[in-house]
Amino acid sequence: MFHIRSSIIIHKMGCSFSFSALWMVFNLVLALSAMAPRADARAFFVFGDSLVDNGNNNYLATSARADSPPYGIDYPTHRPTGRFSNGLNIPDLISEQMGTEPTRAYLDPSLTGNNLLVGANFASAGVGILNDTGIQFLNIIRIAQQLEYFQQYQTRVSRLIGSAGTRRLVNEALVLITLGGNDFVNNYYLVPFSARSRQFSLPDYVRYILSEYRKVLRRLYELGTRRVLVTGTGPMGCVPGELARRSRTGECDVELQRAGALYNPQLIQMVNGLNSEIGSDVFIAANTMQMSFDFIFNPQAYGFVTSKIACCGQGPYNGIGLCTPLSNLCPNRDLYGFWDAFHPSEKANRIIAQRLFTGDDKYMTPMNLSTILALDTKT
Question: Which residues form a coiled coil (predicted)?
């Protein structure tokens, strides 16, 4: 298109069109093209909790927020963004690997125009599969609301590129959803004898939340998504926040690890069952617990000095409360597996993201993201 238009301009202007003027036109076209998404770039949508929230909770009256220093200390702007990280989180790193700009939080006012075509992040810190998970955080975007926002997003995009274009954009998009951990640490095990722990034995609770999660994933499929990465829970009993509450010797909490050991294999079974029912590998399960175990149980192999003590926090293992300007803060975040009481450091997130792209069947079922991207490029 540039070549056609520039030749018409030159033809009309004749010899009076100077090289400097042509250079100015060329730079203008380059600038305009840089503002638009790449034609071959796929959209990216994110749903879930604080592990993948890119700042939606900044716009909510909630205690589950990360919009004050030292959050974001290693982000490119060195300022807090609402990400529960010292820098980039897993969605950022997936976008980086795909060569696209990071998805913006859906509630971010700058998510308009062509920015919508990049995708959107609907995640909200504190949420779970169940509506009663995270009630202590008050105003958060529960998963049903995230799906409603996704429908609203599609309506907005239809005004830009039409309904057929929107359907194609969503069909071809990559989707990441991260849920489940809060249903244990901020619900079933939040307090002794919680309402859910009185209602269900642990095995029954796992089956119940997975049956609810299946409805969420099925709804994502109905809304047009065709490549959905579903992460399992992390090592819930090994994070500094749970070590501070439950461990005297620094060993992972047995009960929370038992919960993850029950939940994660059944999540993979549920994903495989959905794919069989649909007749296509729509859902991809990621064993993020195993990915995290790699650096938790052998931190030195990954350049960490510790995977037990959070870089930022207070109390035992720096695991009490959120990271604040008054917290202990390590000088080198790359030496710590965990940034705060519950969230990996950017360096640890990079290890997890790399496993998502290149991991074998120990980590990814039925295939990794590199295989998905290669397959989808050919079709």
Answer: none
Number of other residues whose CB lies within 10 A of the CB of residue 281:
18
Q: Is 40 annotated in the active site?
A: no
- Pick the catalytic residue: 92, 124, 294, 343? 343
91's tokens: 């969605």
340 flagged as catalytic? yes
Integer Cα distance of 44 and 173 in angstroms:
6
Residue of 49, 334, 340, 345 marked catalytic: 340
CB 284 within 8 A of CB 229: yes
Q: Is residue 325 left, alpha or beta, with left meaning phi > 0 and alpha meaning psi from -120 to 50?
A: alpha
pLDDT tens, residue by residue, 74-131: 999 999 999 999 999 999 999 999 999 999 999 999 999 999 999 999 999 999 999 9
Extract the tokens encoding 278: 């649909």
